Amino acid sequence: MERAAFETLALFLTPFALFSIYLILRLRFPTDLEHWTRGRVSWLTFAGLALALIGLIGLEVFAPRGQGKYVPAHVENGVLIEGHFQ
């Protein structure tokens, strides 16, 4: 669950990071507020949300399915058998 949350957050932050790299390559300071206008931040936010949504849909579509039946952890003959898929 945490992995999906971190991947989604990384996809959302990607446009902001790319814009910062663009500013650095143009020899501008990315911390100046003049570069972060309301319009640019809005577009970066929409792009980040779109990437995050595409990532979540891709995770749902391409996630491995049909791994079999889950057998929970149990004790057999005094030995703990870990949970696994059969």
Q: What would you say this structure looks like, in words?
A:
- The radius of gyration is 22 Å and the shape is elongated.
- The strands form two sheets. The chain has a two-stranded antiparallel ribbon. It has a two-stranded antiparallel sheet with strand order 2-3.
- It has two helices and four strands.
- With 86 residues, it is mainly alpha-helical.
- It has one domain.
- Helix 1 packs antiparallel against helix 2 (38-62).
- Helices cover 57% and strands 12% of the residues.
- A hairpin with a 2-residue loop joins strand 2 and strand 3.
Q: Can you lay out the helices and strands and say which pair or pack?
A:
Blueprint: H1 2-25, H2 38-62, E1 70-71, E2 74-76, E3 79-81, E4 84-85
Helix pairs in contact: 1-2
- State the helix count: 2
Instruction: Tell me the total number of β-strands.
Output: 4
Structural class, from helix and strand content? Answer: mainly alpha
Strand-and-helix sequence, N→C? HHEEEE
Fraction of residues in H or I helices: 55-70%
Average residue-wise pLDDT: 89
Strand content: 5-15%
Q: Roughly how many Å is the radius of gyration?
A: 22 Å
N-C termini distance:
22 Å
Shape field: elongated
Q: Please state how the strands of the largest beta sheet are arranged side by side.
A: 1-4
Biggest sheet, in brief?
2 strands, antiparallel
Low-confidence stretches: none
Q: What number of structural domains do the residues give?
A: 1
